[in-house]
Amino acid sequence: MTDRIHSEHDQGVALLTVDAPKSRNALTLDLSAELAAAVARAEADESVHAVIVTGAPPAFCAGADLTALGEADAEGLRSVYAGFLAVAGCSLPTIAAVGGAAVGAGLNLALAADVRLVGPHAKFIPRFLELGLHPGGGMTWMSQRILGPQQASAMALFGETLTAESAVRSGFALRLIEGDHEALVQAARDLAAPTVAAPREVVLSTKRTMRQTSGLSEHAAAVDAELTPQLESLAAPAFAERLAAMKARISGR
């Protein structure tokens, strides 16, 4: 079977699956480029409101292909990063559905998503220290932003692994989904359902504003950042239609 990124656009969601079972979904240069292209196609498809990234069971992603990694120069490393950086930069909301081990670059792929859901067998394994390898792809920044400095240091400096349960406790994962891989993906679809139902431009502008306000230190600056996109949404036909429908429901009670 040929290694691939299986891409499925259905009911407002792009489901992107790293499908390379023999290597436990390790990211070769080709797969990384293919993942980046799949993210771009999802962004360009106006029927898609959210992206789910997962790995073919039993793994999520075993990291970067070690041969490609060992031979890489600076440009080569950026090619290794291309897939998960595309997820990190995606203009659409992203969910990582992690059912198995996420190792090295696979950990970065999980970190790159807006939200992580985990199955019972999920594990987040840095492995950089074990290989004598400095972290890359923004791992130190992403992990500190999501986990805080202490837990991020435990992973980057001490090689600590997060299990599914400890990932939820630490806030790295939103919730643990019991059951098989299909149940995990369905939970990700269920999480995405309100995003799918919302006007796409509101979804896109909300994610843009989340990025803009994440580094702000003052509430007032966030109010200012939100003002223009909120006014634009108030003037859109979708808001008027939904407001009228809500008023009709309330008056009908």
List keywords for this structure.
single chain, 253 residues, alpha/beta, 2-enoyl-CoA Hydratase, Chain A, domain 1, 2 domains, 6-stranded mixed sheet, 3-stranded mixed sheet, 12 helices, 53% helix, 15% strand, globular
Brief synopsis:
This protein has 253 residues and is α/β, with parallel strands linked by helices.
- Output the structural class: alpha/beta
Radius of gyration: 19 Å
CATH class of the largest domain: Alpha Beta
Major sheet description: 6 strands, mixed
How many DSSP-defined strands?
9
Termini, distance in Å?
A: 57 Å
CATH H-level homologous superfamily name of the largest domain:
2-enoyl-CoA Hydratase, Chain A, domain 1
Q: How many distinct domains?
A: 2
Q: Can you list the strand order of the major beta sheet?
A: 1-2-3-4-6-9
